[in-house]
Each structure stands twice: as structure tokens, then as C-alpha cells.
Amino acid sequence: MSKFQEISTKTGLFMSILFSVVFVLRLVVGTIFLVAGVVKVKGGSSQFLSAIMGYELVPKFVASLLASFLPWLEVVVGGLLILGLWSQSSVIAGAMLLLSFSSGIAISLLRGKDNDCGCFRSVTPVQWRLIYRNLILIGLLMPIYWTKGGLWSIDNGVAMQVDWQTHFSINVMVPVVVWAHALLSVRILHQSTKPTSQA
Q1: CA distance 33 to 129
Q2: In principle, which of 71, 86, 87, 140 could form an S-S bond with 40, CB 3.0–4.6 Å?
Q3: Burial readout 152-191 (b: 16 or more C-beta within 10 A, e: otherwise)
Q4: pTM for the full model?
Q5: Nearest 5 degrees, angle CA 69-CA 71-CA 74?
């Protein structure tokens, strides 16, 4: 076996493992979105509406639309991720949801508020760990986007093997850098809001 063939074999094995991991990520992140959406739908729009109003960011009629629409969007995004259907569009929609939720939480924290985050059915006050959690979920979404769902996805024809060279390129560095910058920015904001100890 030539050196080139050996490298190709090792690279192919690595990518096969990566695509299998992406399949697991799809199930995990998709289930989180699905459960979050179903819980809000079953809880009724009034509870979620109350949580949205607690942020004091939008008028009530806008909050009412969001309370009716967002839970179903979470359900759809979660279901599509689990199926591996329209994976890249689902990732974009999911990332936008997470960024929107994180922005609202950050604004509340910077205002010194402790309103309900509206994440699931239980009342959970806004806190920095929720933003970190959302950023981690966005990080988990990125490999799904790059691989178009990975293995056992409808997008890839439920293929056991995927031509990774058609999906993976140096362009993955751009979202990684942006994501790392967002994580660092949140960390700096978090640290800046902590009270300084006095001697």
C-alpha cells in the first residue's frame, strides 16, 4: 500500500467516525428542540406568553405571535434534525432560535432582571449558564451543517458512506471563528457583570 493510499484510508476512517458522531448529534440536539417545543405546546401559549412578556422587549401583540409560533418552530426544527431532512436549513433555523433566546437572556441579565427564561415548562430564572448552554448547542449544530446531516440522514440518502470531500472544506473555519468569538464575548460580558471584591 502506497503512502497516499494509507493516508486516504486513515482519512476515510476518520470521516466515517465523524459522520457517525454527527448522526448522534442530530438525535441529541433534535430531541432537545423537539421536547422544548412539545412542552411549550402542551403547556399552552399563555405560560410562554408570560415568559416572553417578562423580558420586556416586545409589545404584547408581538409576544402573542411569538408565543403561538415559536414552540411549533422548535418542534419542526427538532423533527427535521432527527430525520436528517433539510439538515442545513434546520441547523440555520435552530441556530437563529438559540441566538435569539441567548440575546434576550443576556439583555435581561445586563438589566439586572431575574425573569423566567421560558426554556421549558418549569420556571427557570435567566442566568449565564443558559447562554453557555445555547452556545454549546450551536457548536454541536455546526458539524451537522457541514456534513448535511451525516450518516443515516434523508439528505444523504440514508447512505452508510458519504463522500465527505463534497461536504467538508476549509470554509468550516469561518463559523468556528465566529462561534469562538461569540463564546469569548459572552464570557467577557459575564465577567464584567460580576461584582468586584473590595479589599
Answers
A1: 18
A2: 71
A3: bbebbeeeeebebeebbeeeeeebeeebeebbeebeeebe
A4: 0.76
A5: 110
pLDDT in tens, 99-137: 889 988 998 998 888 888 888 766 788 899 999 999 899
If you search the block for the grid coordinates 470554509, which residue do you land on? 171
Burial class (CB in 10 A: 0-12, 13-18, 19+), 13: exposed
User: What pLDDT sits at residue 47?
Assistant: 85
Radius of gyration of the chain (CA): 20
Instruction: Give burial (CB, 10 Å; 0-12/13-18/19+) of 65.
Output: middle
Residue tagged 402573542 (cell numbers): 64
Task: Report phi then psi at 116, rounded to 5.
Answer: -65, 135
Task: State how far the Cα of 183 lies from the Cα of 134, in Å rounded to an integer.
Answer: 10
Task: Return the bridge partners of 116, or none.
Answer: 125
What whole-number distance in Å separates Cα of residue 90 and Cα of residue 83?
A: 11
How far is residue 22 from each of residues 15, 84, 148, 161, 171, measured CA to CA in Å?
A: 10, 10, 9, 13, 18
